[in-house]
Amino acid sequence: MSVFSEDQLRRYEVYRRSALGKSTVRKLVASVLQQTVSPTMAFVVAGFTKVYVGEIIETARDVMVEWGQTGPLRPEHLREAQRRYKATHGTPACSLHRRRPPAGF
């Protein structure tokens, strides 16, 4: 953290203080999985989501700098960051949308 610029340090402090609402995460995960979700699972998903959003935002800021732009992030920066994330990490979450085999298989 000693090598952070003032702006990076400020963003890091905001990131550390931020949190996703556990009840909202729990409801969303329950609706996707169509089953009840424990508070522990909601906590874990909220943590992973926070890291994911942080990575997308940092990549979007890099995109903005690469493109020689300044100011707030714009949708095109976020879309490019998401595209890059998918290219390097894949999309493991897409397996949730696959059809489940019928019972007995």
UniProtKB/TrEMBL annotation:
Pfam families given in the database record: TAFII28 (PF04719)
Which cellular compartments is it found in?
Nucleus
Under the heading InterPro entries, the entry gives: Histone-fold, TAF11-like, TAFII28_dom
GO CC list: transcription factor TFIID complex
Q: Where is the composition biased (Basic residues)?
A: 96-105
Q: Where is this region: Disordered?
A: 86-105
- Main location class: nucleus
Q: Name one GO biological process term.
A: RNA polymerase II preinitiation complex assembly
> What GO MF terms are annotated?
protein heterodimerization activity; RNA polymerase II general transcription initiation factor activity
The TAFII28-like protein domain sits at 2-84
Q: Which family does it belong to?
A: Belongs to the TAF11 family.
Tell me the protein's name.
Answer: Transcription initiation factor TFIID subunit 11
**What organism is listed for this UniProt entry?**
Thamnocephalis sphaerospora
